[in-house]
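Whether sequence alone determines local backbone shape is best considered at the level of individual chains. In the encoding step, the backbone of a single protein was reduced to a row of integers, each denoting a local shape. For completeness, the protein is quoted in full, as a sequence line and a line of structure tokens.
***
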Amino acid sequence: MTSPRPLDLPKDLVRYNGQITRRDRNILNQHASGILWFTGFSAAGKSTIAHGIEKKLFNRGIRSYVLDGDNVRHGINSDLGFSRHDRKENIRRIVEISRLLVDAGFIVLASFISPFKEDRDFVRSCFSQDNFYEVYVRCSIQECERRDPKGMYEKARRGIIKNYTGISAPYEEPEFPDLVIDTEKLNIEDSIQLVLNFMDRVKMLSLISSA
């Protein structure tokens, strides 16, 4: 998946690099910036875990922000549906938003079903190896349907919602995620702590030295 380039982009249009770098912001914040990409079925627990982590980080003075699939589709991606083309464009826009937030010094907690390996590989390719981590929130489709807090699976079964992941559209399970959370075995608090321990281990929460 390649990022489309506007056809009418002026040839003399170049990126402007400001005087304050991402590292400068990380030093000011006293922690690294980066992205955790939560993938999995709807109702697996992605957003609940991401928002729980955000609250824990906020209480520690760590700047983070949750990008949630539903919220994004209410705003900047409100013009997109669930066709393969629209799903790709959905991911591309999310990547651009995430890049800005990471550059601004935030830890981005991105919660998106992102069912296709091609799209997730594209996201990974847009960030350096040491500041992107894929988190697979694993939960069987049967359990997700049982939870179904928004009634989406039931509507998909009735054909009211088309191209719904797990029902009428596929989900390609991650082969090599950086972290797996099985929400059929772990409760929310334990899942949140598992992620925080992982973030400590990969030094996402480490102090940044100005030296």
